[in-house]
Design goal:
By secondary structure, the protein is of the alpha+beta class. The protein is built from three helices and 15 strands. The strands form three sheets. A nine-stranded antiparallel sheet has the order 10-7-6-3-2-1-15-14-13, with no helix packed on it.
């Protein structure tokens, strides 16, 4: 009898996703609502930073992020390298705010980033945690070339002499795979991200990657290979509805108070 009870209990636990200690919990898809995506780490490099480990992103607590045309994150010293506020509806992502810290010590000096058109940014998050982020509208300026090249679109796929097919579009950030073209003797490479996973309490974590060739608007940097990797934390900021039981409990309390007052007045 005890053996039967144990088997039944185990079956119920598994069906509820409770499982045995060490088992992976089922993924909770992101529902329609409001979210904030935080960059908690990552890298940028002229080359593959995923394999070299170079070019680590930094929260610029001391750098002047507003040096050029109000560039920079506006989130200096908050512990994050970027913040994106968005809403999700039917798996489609709409951006309402984009902020990113600059890249330090690049070949062109400090490289400042921002978005000039939030309406062109967007993307999708599916029920398995796969993310595709369209960074259209992101622009940058390198401190050493601010007076010559000025502000230019960042990560557009229009490099001169690129061996891979040229789309003329912004290279998306993805939790899947992203590849760039060969440059001279340097072979193209592929980076791979990580789909979102549950961190509990309305929080998901994952890794977005983007590999490309710098576009033709960047002068001597034209067709230079680059990579970006963003470790992200996505937090639900939607208002949590109050359960019906709480409303019933509250109305019950109000009723009890009313009865007590009537008894007292009697």
């Amino acid at each position: 009898m005890n053996i039967k009870k144990t088997a039944v209990a185990a079956g119920i636990a598994l069906s509820l996703g409770l499982g045995v200690s060490g088992a992976q919990a089922a993924f909770t898809p992101l529902a329609n609502g409001s979210y904030t995506m935080y960059f908690t780490g990552g890298c940028f490099q002229f080359g593959n930073c995923q394999t070299s480990g170079l070019g680590g992103l930094t929260d610029n607590s001391t750098a002047n992020e507003a040096t050029y045309a109000s560039f920079g994150s506006g989130i200096v010293g908050d512990g994050y390298m970027g913040v994106i506020v968005f809403t999700l509806s039917g798996g489609s992502l709409t951006v309402s705010s984009f902020s990113q810290d600059s890249y330090l010590a690049t070949a062109g000096g400090t490289f400042y980033l921002r978005s000039t058109n939030l309406g062109t940014m967007g993307g999708s998050i599916d029920g398995s945690g796969n993310v595709s982020f369209d960074s259209t509208g992101r622009v940058g300026v390198a401190a050493s070339f601010a007076s010559t090249l000025g502000e230019q679109p960042w990560n557009i796929d229009n490099a001169t002499g690129q061996t891979a097919p040229v789309t003329g579009l912004y290279v998306p950030w993805t939790t899947g795979s992203s590849s760039n073209g060969k440059k001279g003797l340097s072979a193209g490479f592929t980076m791979t991200g990580t789909p979102l996973s549950d961190a509990g309490a309305g929080v998901w974590t994952g890794t977005l990657v983007s590999a490309g060739n710098i576009g033709s608007l960047w002068g001597s940097f034209d067709n230079t290979q680059y990579s970006e990797l963003f470790n992200v934390k996505i937090v639900s900021t939607s208002a949590v509805p109050v359960p019906a039981a709480v409303w019933l409990f509250g109305s019950g309390l109000v009723g009890l108070v009313g009865i007590a007052r009537r008894k007292k007045s009697a």
